[in-house]
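Morning - uridine-5'-diphosphate inputs below, output right after.
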Amino acid sequence: MASIQRVLVTGGAGFLGSHLCERLVEDGHDVICLDNFFTSQKTNVQHLLGRSNFELIRHDITAPIWLEVDQIYNLACPAAPGHYQYNAIKTIKTSVLGAINVLGIAKRCHAKVLQASTSEVYGDPEIHPQTESYRGNVNPIGPRACYDEGKRAAETLFMDYYRMHKVQIGIVRIFNTYGPRMHPFDGRVISNFIRQALHGEDITVFGDGSQTRSFCYRDDLIEGMMRMMNKADDFIGPVNLGNPGEYTIRQLAEQIINLTGSNSQLIERPLPDDDPTRRKPDITLAKEKLQWQPTIKLQDGLLQTINWFRSINLEHYRPPTPNY
Ligand code: NAD
Ligand code: UDP
């Protein structure tokens, strides 16, 4: 987009949010990063603080806020299972009240608002790969429901504000994304395995490691989100964003051991309840509507991420949540 926009990024200090803010600042937009630092820290955006087109607000998106903006990326929500299960009630409030609050801003300002939804809306999927038309298999009363159902309800709110108030919206369903600035203690599989491999600790494979995931590098993902936001036509999604390359968790562990040159051993730990058996995005729609597809191979993305993990001091990160 050529013109300068005033852009609000909720959850802007997080793993994905901080990279999005970086891209937007580089493109010359006026960026407001809003975050309560529940799962992130200011160091993620410290390098942007001196920039005249960047502003940081500590705020909890469950409370209303009065801002004037042209675009909103709504990313505020803990994303890792250990983080979102730490305070499950707060998680669903963040998705639902957060959606209501950003949609309210968008309605008042005639802004466009993009929802960071998730492949978790498909639950433990019965169809493979997952297309946007699939309605999912979520356990509404299980330990992942606070996140899955919160994100599903947020999609409902986005659609209803679109139908009732003509708010300009976009919904992207993000599949597992990784890269530098993931919280090293978030308990997600890539952060756990790299941290464990670099420190010679056992690699904790949950279950027998035959469950699959498809991993997208963060730069590819941010590009897809920005294309969706800046799309001029009336396409609102939902659209899957993810890398269709599918790996078992055991294959991922072996690849990380190889790339780090680690002596770590694999050990099995109990599979968490409702852990999806397999996951892979069908990205036909993203290719057609956004001319988007991932460009970064898993090995290259993992090397970038491993290098970043080598460069950080783990003591600078707040300790893991009790659910870790
Ligand atoms: P993250 O935990 O690093 O980022 C989330 C950010 O939101 C953090 O900075 C956190 O402090 C902030 N936040 C949480 N609750 C808040 C609240 N009530 N008010 C204000 N800020 C709050 O996670 P991420 O991986 O960067 O995820 C960003 C978004 O993308 C999330 O909405 C997540 O659900 C979605 N998503 C991510 C993935 C992935 O694989 N990374 C996959 C699917 C969806
Ligand atoms: N996992 C694992 N060991 C870990 C962390 C996760 O085997 O130390 C598995 C987890 O059970 C799941 C997959 O890796 O099958 C991806 O987990 P993650 O928490 O990264 O994301 P999810 O896709 O489940 O939300």
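Note: Residues 80-81, 176, 188-189, 192, 204-206, 211, 213, 249, 271-272, 275 surround uridine-5'-diphosphate (ligand 2) (CB under 6 Å).

O.
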